[in-house]
Every structure is written in C-alpha cells, then in structure tokens.
Amino acid sequence: MLYRISALWARVEIALAAGLALAVTLLILLNVVTRNMGAALFWVDELAIYAMAWMTFLGASAAIHFGHSVAITLVTDVLPTPVRRAVTIGVDIVILGFALAMVWFCWIWFAPLDLMRHGFDTGAFQAATFNFIYAEPTTTLGIAKSWVWLVMWAFSLGMVLHGLANLATHLRGRVTA
C-alpha cells in the first residue's frame, strides 16, 4: 500500500515537473521575444528560475521512487546478492535519514508553531524569533519568497514517502538492486 501511494505521488511529481519544464521553456521564449522587441519583462527571468527550481526538486524526489538517482554501481554489481541487498537497504536508510533531516530543517526554518503562537502576525513573529522567512519578497514578482520555498516541504515530505516505501519494499525482499 505504501509503495502504491509513493508511486502515485511520484507520478504527480513527474507531471508537475513536466508542466514546469514546459513553463520554463515558454517563459524563456517569451523573454527572448520581448527583449528582441525592446520591451523586456524582467519578472519573466525570475519566474523561470523559480519554475526551474520547483521542477528540479520535484523531479529529484520522484527519482528516489523510481531509483533513477545517480549511482556508481561498480562495487555493488559484483557483490553477492545478499550483500547487494544489504547495501541497498543501507542506502535506503541513508536516504530516509536525509529526508527526515530535511523535514526537520524545514520545520525549524518555517517555524509554523511559532507563527501560529503569534497569531500569524509576521511582524510579531519576526520580532520574537528574528526569523524573516515570511518577510523577504521576491525581486520582481513581489510575492513572499516563503511561497517559493514551499518546494522544500514538498521535496522533503516526498523523499520521506519514497524512502519509506523503498525501504519497506527492500526489507520484504521484493526487489533486489
């Protein structure tokens, strides 16, 4: 069941990443056309950068599910199957540990409980915590960067889901890497 949920979420991540790849392409094309006409839209550059960042993080999370991450298999390819399985489980544990650390870092960075304690008043939150995550605007779009940085939550939680699913699958011995 966990693996099915992971697979579904990975397909959603890939679909969103593909849509964002198309958006980046169209935004850059728009930028080329408007600059060529002498009427550059400066917000297009920034939006293309943010779309590419989101695309990258969503694709990286999905790559964990599909096992398409960069790997050097020179040693593991020659190992006996039981040892290879143990190494695969070890890698799954490291990935899950990294993902859980990322969730913890997002929790500290966004400090949602502190924000709630201050009644979602970002000014009071900043004064009490010296955390300005919700105050910094994007350069040309004028929105809070915290909206852009939400991709870190999606990336981290997606990696936890995929890491747990892969670990559970490999512990059951269904897949040998």
From TrEMBL:
<keyword id="KW-0472">Membrane</keyword>
<comment type="similarity">
    <text>Belongs to the TRAP transporter small permease family.</text>
</comment>
<feature type="transmembrane region" description="Helical">
    <location>
        <begin position="87"/>
        <end position="110"/>
    </location>
</feature>
<dbReference type="InterPro" id="IPR055348">
    <property type="entry name" value="DctQ"/>
</dbReference>
<feature type="domain" description="Tripartite ATP-independent periplasmic transporters DctQ component">
    <location>
        <begin position="25"/>
        <end position="172"/>
    </location>
</feature>
<dbReference type="InterPro" id="IPR007387">
    <property type="entry name" value="TRAP_DctQ"/>
</dbReference>
<comment type="function">
    <text>Part of the tripartite ATP-independent periplasmic (TRAP) transport system.</text>
</comment>
<feature type="transmembrane region" description="Helical">
    <location>
        <begin position="12"/>
        <end position="33"/>
    </location>
</feature>
<comment type="subunit">
    <text>The complex comprises the extracytoplasmic solute receptor protein and the two transmembrane proteins.</text>
</comment>
<protein>
    <recommendedName>
        <fullName>TRAP transporter small permease protein</fullName>
    </recommendedName>
</protein>
<keyword id="KW-0812">Transmembrane</keyword>
<dbReference type="GO" id="GO:0022857">
    <property type="term" value="F:transmembrane transporter activity"/>
</dbReference>
<dbReference type="Pfam" id="PF04290">
    <property type="entry name" value="DctQ"/>
</dbReference>
<keyword id="KW-1133">Transmembrane helix</keyword>
<feature type="transmembrane region" description="Helical">
    <location>
        <begin position="53"/>
        <end position="75"/>
    </location>
</feature>
<keyword id="KW-1003">Cell membrane</keyword>
<feature type="transmembrane region" description="Helical">
    <location>
        <begin position="147"/>
        <end position="168"/>
    </location>
</feature>
<dbReference type="GO" id="GO:0005886">
    <property type="term" value="C:plasma membrane"/>
</dbReference>
<keyword id="KW-0813">Transport</keyword>
<dbReference type="GO" id="GO:0015740">
    <property type="term" value="P:C4-dicarboxylate transport"/>
</dbReference>
<keyword id="KW-0997">Cell inner membrane</keyword>
